[in-house]
């Protein structure tokens, strides 16, 4: 550290002022401890007082990035990058800000500049992994995360990103191994421990509950949001430890403030659900878009959150060569958004908001993106639950569409949703009554979708995926025009019956 340089004292001052460099170092220390308000209180006056102080702008941008205030983070990081365009650290932070704002292409461009300056930097590669993961390109994400982790085993974000990518691809055991290695390396963050609790039981051989309790002693949660995430993680760890009453009490405390926070979003969600239900009930039979040569089948595997869609997707994509898993790829939303933009009208991510005269433009944008994503695959899957809203529109606008619709035990899905803290959306997820209302609506939508689209839609139960996989494969082959399944199928881990210890609590909710 450089020697402290004291500014001259004004009359009446009894102590020397702290040099800006020392103030900035203190702000960044507080930021890394999660004390973001204190860090902002130090850093913001510095950035204002010294207009060319790039390091202060950069650190303030990181503070706002950590606080989730992405617009303000963008403001300060753009200013810093404008003054020092070859600073790879600022370019990397800027790319993450773009990513959080949904500007993935801008994020990638910023990272390309950073990689050109520092091509073998682990933090840049980990940020590239974030972009791939946000795009649901999990194979590409896990490759760059592995490279980043190999370059810097101390980079916890690379290990967590790798584990999340592997988990999304159904590789829970390998994800658990990655997290265990990170834990052995000395990482003990709440984020790491929380991700451990999201994996299937018996995959992580670490006493996560004890680790969380020790973390609370060593570093108490810094703010309300962190405290809330801690409660979700601890509830899951208590569940794994068989301490069910404590788990439930902790989970109720974790969900309560979120249920209040998302009331306005929930109202909008319910209103959209009602409009969707009315639209499908009143819809007259419409011609399904004919199959078209040259394009793969778009197989939408739909069901509510935590219903087993990923398990079914892993099963189907392993059964036949030429089937590519797309996971929860937002390919429809992006095509809709770009159609609105090209027409120079206010945008929406909802296909039902698109004027009918623009459906052909939407279809072409979708098919172009599908060709890039699917490559030579004959079947490309998508498990984004929200597609249930516009399944009928998709069937009339896009060729070669099929639907597998998953149903699962109501109590198990209620429990799994209630146990989850979502990064965004899912405003219904924090109250038992609103969860049940959502699931009732979703199952009704499944029934109506099969009724309206009998030629291209099938219902699959979670139980049948586990108990009678051969039947599931036969029905999928018939639906998609595929031959007999090929190759050894994966052993599907499951958590059927996970709600059993909580049925009394769920019933009382």
Description:
With 509 residues, this protein is mainly alpha-helical. The protein has a domain of 245 residues: Rossmann fold, CATH 3.40.50. 61% of the residues lie in helices and 5% in strands. Helix 5 packs parallel to helix 7 and helix 11 packs across helix 13. The chain is globular, with a radius of gyration of 25 Å. The N terminus is likely disordered.
CATH fold title of the domain at 264-508: Rossmann fold
Q: Could you name the ranges where pLDDT drops below 50 across 5 or more consecutive residues?
A: 1-16
Strand fraction: under 5%
Outline type: globular
Based on DSSP secondary structure assignment, what is the total number of beta strands?
5
- Overall SS class: mainly alpha
The portion of residues assigned to helices is 55-70%
Contiguous helical run count: 24
What is the second-level CATH architecture of the domain at 264-508? Answer: 3-Layer(aba) Sandwich
End-to-end separation in angstroms reads 56 Å
Q: Which CATH class of the domain at 264-508 applies here?
A: Alpha Beta
Largest sheet: 5 strands, parallel
Taken in chain order, the helices and strands follow as HHHHHHHHHHHHHHHEHEHHEHEHHEHHH
What is the rounded Rg?
25 Å
For the largest beta sheet, what order do the strands appear in spatially? 2-3-1-4-5
CATH superfamily of the domain at 264-508: P-loop containing nucleotide triphosphate hydrolases
What would you say about this model in short?
The chain is mainly α. It has helices at 20-32, 36-49, 54-67, 70-83, 88-100, 104-117, 122-134, 138-151, 156-168, 172-185, 190-198, 208-218, 224-240, 244-261, 263-282, 309-319, 331-342, 359-374, 391-397, 410-418, 432-452, 462-467, 469-480, 503-508, and strands spanning 297-302, 323-324, 379-382, 401-407, 457-461. Helix 2 (36-49) runs antiparallel to helix 3 (54-67), helix 5 (88-100) runs parallel beside helix 7 (122-134) and helix 15 packs parallel to helix 21 (432-452).
């Amino acid at each position: 550290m450089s020697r402290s340089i004291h500014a001259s004292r004004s009359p009446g001052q009894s102590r020397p002022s702290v040099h800006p460099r020392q103030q900035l170092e203190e702000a960044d220390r507080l930021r890394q401890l999660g004390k973001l308000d204190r860090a902002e209180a130090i850093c913001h006056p510095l950035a204002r007082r010294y207009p060319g102080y790039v390091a202060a702008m950069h650190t303030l941008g990181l503070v706002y990035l950590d606080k989730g205030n992405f617009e303000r983070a963008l403001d300060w990081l753009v200013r810093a990058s404008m003054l020092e365009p070859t600073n790879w650290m600022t370019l990397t932070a800027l790319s993450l800000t773009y990513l959080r704002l949904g500007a993935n292409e801008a994020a990638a461009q910023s990272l390309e500049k950073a990689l050109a300056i520092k091509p073998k930097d682990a933090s840049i590669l980990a940020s590239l992994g974030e972009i791939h993961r946000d795009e649901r390109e999990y194979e590409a994400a896990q490759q760059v995360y592995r490279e980043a982790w190999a370059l810097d085993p101390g980079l916890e974000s690379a290990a967590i990103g790798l584990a999340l990518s592997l988990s999304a691809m159904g590789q829970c055991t390998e994800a658990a191994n990655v997290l265990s290695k990170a834990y052995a390396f000395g990482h003990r963050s709440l984020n790491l421990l929380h991700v451990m609790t999201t994996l299937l039981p018996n995959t992580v051989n670490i006493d996560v509950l004890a680790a969380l309790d020790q973390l609370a002693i060593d570093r108490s949660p810094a703010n309300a949001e962190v405290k809330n995430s801690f409660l979700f993680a601890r509830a899951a760890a208590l569940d794994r430890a068989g301490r069910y009453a404590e788990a439930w009490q902790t989970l109720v405390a974790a969900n309560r403030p979120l249920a209040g926070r998302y009331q306005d979003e929930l109202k909008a969600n319910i209103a959209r659900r009602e409009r969707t239900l009315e639209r499908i009930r009143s819809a007259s039979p419409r011609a399904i878009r004919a199959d078209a040569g040259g394009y793969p089948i778009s197989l939408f595997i739909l069901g509510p959150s935590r219903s087993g869609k990923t398990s079914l997707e892993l099963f189907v994509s392993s059964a036949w060569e030429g089937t590519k898993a797309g996971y929860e790829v937002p390919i429809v939303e992006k095509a809709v958004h770009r159609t609105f933009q090209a027409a120079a009208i206010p945008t929406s991510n909802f296909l039902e908001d698109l004027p009918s005269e623009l459906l052909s433009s939407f279809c072409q944008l979708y098919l172009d993106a599908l060709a890039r994503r699917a490559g030579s695959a004959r079947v490309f899957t998508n498990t984004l639950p929200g597609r249930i809203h516009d399944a009928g529109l998709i069937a009339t606008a896009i060729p070669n569409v099929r639907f597998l619709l998953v149903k699962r035990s109501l109590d198990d899905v209620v429990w799994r949703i209630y146990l989850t803290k979502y990064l965004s959306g899912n405003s219904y997820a924090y109250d038992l009554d609103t969860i049940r209302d959502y699931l009732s609506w979703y199952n009704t939508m499944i029934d109506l979708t099969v009724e309206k689209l009998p030629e291209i839609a099938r219902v699959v139960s979670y139980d049948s995926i586990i108990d009678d996989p051969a039947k599931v494969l036969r029905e999928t082959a018939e639906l998609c025009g595929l031959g007999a399944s090929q190759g050894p199928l994966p052993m599907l881990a499951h958590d059927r019956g996970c709600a059993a210890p909580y049925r009394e609590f769920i019933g009382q909710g």
